[in-house]
Amino acid sequence: MTRFIDVPAMTRLIEEVGLTRIIDQLSKCIEEDFLRWNDFDKSARVANHSEIGVIELMPVSNASHYAFKYVNGHPNNTVSGLSTVMAFGVLAEVQTGFPILLSELTVATALRTCATSLMAARALSRSDAKRMALIGNGAQAEFQAIAFHALFGINEIVVYDVDPQATEKLLRNLAEYPALKKVRATSIAQAVRGADIITTVTADKTRATIITPEMVEPGMHINAVGGDCPGKTELHVDVLRGARVFVEYEPQTRVEGDIQQLDVDFPVVDLWRVLSGDQPGRQTREQVTVFDSVGFALEDYSTLRYVNQQATKLGLGVDVELVPSMDDPKDLFRFTRSARAPLLRRVV
């Protein structure tokens, strides 16, 4: 049987483990898999684009397990009451191909994205960072804010969104974190002034310049999270030129990330090499660092692996017959009838 985790089951998992704890554990789980980088068969995601959005499949595997995520990105969905991003994923055994887990990943993707941002910031930003600018206050924003406040030591966030209602929603949801000072900015420039970390999580599928060179101060770390497909950017090209840039999976980021604006020989550093100690991260206190984050399938593999472990431990989800359970694996035809017992041979 295949364990099925729907949205209510994911909510129960988060409640039982605890939101902050699950982000911390997931960040460490992702780092564990990044440190096993060469054990995985990797590829860029397969994307089908339209004028209003994108639908993608994100596969990855190692010797024991295969995982994929189905995910979309449709910024106009909120007008009709749908999420901009919706996702589900599968974890399967490589030895047999049997799917052991089918899980919602819409909520879990927000968890893994902030967990990845946290992992990168721990490796790249100044350790004494206390103030973060959060540009884009949509579905991802609370997760980023909580991760950096509870697990990195950020004690002040300055928030900005072109949609005031999104900012109201964010501030309302963060009210239960009184130790986190929340400042509402009237412009991006005001929000980023004096920030130690800038996190951009905008949704529009356009070549935008959310952060421009005059906004960048020495020693800043920028988590550029919103750019994740061709033609969608958040950083002015000169911000990249003036920074040390880190990526998840370079072949994918060259096409989808902010570095799509630059020549293919523009130097970038693989984040997994920094985590393993093979390459330096931040080299000086004054250096500007950019994590050009587009989201990579290995992070979803880690998430599915973690969800499967926790769901099994906590007894969450239900077992479903996603693939036929067969006495005779060569007799698929019997599933064309509701009675699954094999037909009796007529005795003549």
Structure, explained:
The protein is an alpha/beta fold. It contains ten helices and 18 strands. Strands 1, 2, 3, 4, 5, 6, 7 and 18 form an eight-stranded mixed β-sheet that branches. An eight-stranded parallel β-sheet has the order 10-9-8-11-13-17-15-16. The chain has a two-stranded parallel ribbon with strand order 12-14. The protein is globular and about 70 Å long. The two termini are about 40 Å apart. The C terminus is likely disordered.
Name the beta content range.
15-25%
- The N- and C-terminal alpha carbons lie at a distance of 39 Å
Characterize the overall form.
globular
Quaternary arrangement of the chains shown? Answer: single chain
Q: Which characteristics define this entry?
A:
alpha/beta; 348 residues; eight-stranded mixed beta sheet; 18 strands; eight-stranded parallel beta sheet; 24% strand; globular
